[in-house]
Design a protein that fits this description.
The complex is a heterodimer of chains A (148) and B (112). Chain A contains 3 helices and 5 strands; from the N terminus they run E-H-H-E-E-H-E-E. The N terminus of chain A is likely disordered. In chain A, a hairpin with a 2-residue loop joins strand 4 and strand 5. The longest helix of chain A has 21 residues. Chain A has 148 residues and is an alpha+beta fold. Chain B has one domain: STAS domain (Transcription Regulator spoIIAA), CATH 3.30.750.24. Chain B contains 4 helices and 5 strands, in the order E-E-H-E-H-E-H-E-H. In chain B, 44% of the residues are buried. Chain B has 112 residues and is of the alpha/beta class. In chain B, strand 1 and strand 2 form a beta hairpin. The chains are: A alpha+beta (148), B alpha/beta (112). Chains A and B meet through helix 1, helix 2 and helix 3 of A and helix 1, helix 2 and helix 3 of B.
Chain lengths: 148, 112
């Protein structure tokens, strides 16, 4: 049986600038490298890249002082990511799934980011509170056989 | 992110991408990639050295594949079975662009 007290958290605040995505990626990699499996690290990086890129690109008017706070918390075998921003209201959990294209000619460009988040995270919750979007993503480590 | 281009036998152009194909990386390779897609007819996009893929990268691949198709050519992807391949499949790209796990299979698909 493995029972480790292994609760750790980290927080990063980002500006409304696409260049911030590089800083986000480095920060997530640093947090997940020794705390999660490579697959969970990949999933966290993917989901947060999609979520934060959406906020940066569509979350506010050009001159809005948009602030995006990202928090990662390792809780036992799970990892929880919280993204909070003061941009315009947007609930990705209510976005419709993309319609599969029948051919390359018909395929629409875009619209896959939220679908990727839904697929790679184990759970996704949204709430709008105090004028802020709060998105919580959960990632479960795949079950591993118990150690000797 | 790096992009390199290699001319193979049979008029095949191999475009090898390396690094993180995220928003930051995709912005770097988008223009050179579109230029190759406009100029070449048989393109193999090698993602073997790509260790991360996000939706902006998928957008670049899809736009490139559409350009090649419009010009009467073919574009295939070479990608081992890893998380990058999982992203491609989850996004439905495997139904639109042929994905091969070996260079031999990708070459054969372009030759036919």
């Amino acid at each position: 049986m493995i029972a480790m007290a292994n609760n750790e958290a980290s927080r990063l605040v980002l500006r409304k600038d696409v260049a911030e995505l590089k800083r986000l990626a480095g920060w997530i990699e640093g947090f997940t490298r020794k705390r999660t499996s490579p697959d969970v690290s990949f999933a966290v990086q993917l989901c947060l890249e999609e979520a934060v890129a959406n906020i940066i690109m569509y979350g506010g008017a050009r001159d809005d002082p948009l602030e995006i706070a990202v928090e990662l918390e390792r809780n036992g075998g799970n990892l929880v990511a919280r993204i909070e921003d003061n941009g315009r209201q947007f609930d990705p959990t209510r976005a419709l799934p993309p319609v599969p294209a029948r051919s390359l000619e018909e395929a629409k460009v875009g619209d896959v980011g939220i679908h990727l988040m839904r697929s790679f995270a184990s759970g996704m919750d949204y709430e709008r509170r105090d004028g802020r979007n709060r998105l919580t993503l959960r990632f479960l480590e795949p079950a591993v056989p118990p150690a000797e | 992110m790096d992009i390199s281009v290699d001319d193979l036998a049979g008029g095949i152009t191999k475009v090898a991408l390396r690094g993180r194909f995220d928003t930051t990386g995709a912005v770097v390779v988008e223009l050179p990639f579109n230029k190759i897609a406009t100029e070449k007819q048989k393109i193999m996009v090698d993602l073997s050295a790509v260790n991360f893929l996000a939706s902006y990268g998928i957008r670049v691949l899809l736009v490139g594949a559409k350009i090649v198709k419009n010009n009467g050519g073919n574009l295939v992807i070479l990608c081992p079975d890893n998380n990058v391949a999982k992203v491609l499949k989850t996004a439905g790209m495997d139904a639109l662009i042929p994905i091969h796990q070996s260079e031999a299979a990708a070459t054969a698909a372009l030759a036919s």
